[in-house]
Amino acid sequence: MSSIQIIVGSMLGGTEYVAEACEETLTELDFKVDIHLKPDLNNILSNTFLSNNEQKKHSDLPKKPLWIICTSTHGAGDYPDSIKQFASDLSHCEQDLSTVSFLTIGIGDSSYDTFCKAAKDITKLLITMGCTEIVPLKTLDMSEDIDPEELAQQWISLNKDLL
Ligand SMILES: Cc1cc2nc3c(=O)[nH]c(=O)nc-3n(C[C@H](O)[C@H](O)[C@H](O)COP(=O)(O)O)c2cc1C
């Protein structure tokens, strides 16, 4: 079992429901999950690398640490307030993140030219910081009549063997 950190960027709360739906699916799949509605990089790093140490004690439970980013986009392609500090801290992080794998779910509205830009930007930033994207960005378009929680859960289930 790998430990998964779900990192949430939301302004109005909708993306929190999507993240919690992902948490539910992952828990059903028997993953250990921590969800961060107000992500703090230091806290996430200590969970990530503590989990690593724990895994070393259990050699039958190996796996790289995994982060799942769920973020909407606000303003004119900006990060939501809840994830701004995390993104800034991440860009200055000096810790080696090369063992961290991640995937991103972007929630946005395609009527904006900057569709899901925050999710695209954080994906680029994580790659710049040495992390490995294991599944290409999943975007959910709220201008369509969709159930974003259901779609996110289906996407997690589809990719479960890569986690
Ligand atoms: C003021 C405002 C600005 C927005 N700007 C963008 C944007 O630039 N790109 C985009 O894809 N969606 C944009 N959206 C759509 C939101 O990302 C979308 O409504 C999302 O579901 C909000 O998620 P949240 O409830 O977690 O904040 C904007 C929405 C609002 C209200």
From TrEMBL:
<keyword id="KW-0285">Flavoprotein</keyword>
<dbReference type="Pfam" id="PF00258">
    <property type="entry name" value="Flavodoxin_1"/>
</dbReference>
<protein>
    <submittedName>
        <fullName>FMN-binding protein MioC</fullName>
    </submittedName>
</protein>
<feature type="domain" description="Flavodoxin-like">
    <location>
        <begin position="4"/>
        <end position="160"/>
    </location>
</feature>
<keyword id="KW-0288">FMN</keyword>
<dbReference type="InterPro" id="IPR029039">
    <property type="entry name" value="Flavoprotein-like_sf"/>
</dbReference>
<dbReference type="InterPro" id="IPR008254">
    <property type="entry name" value="Flavodoxin/NO_synth"/>
</dbReference>
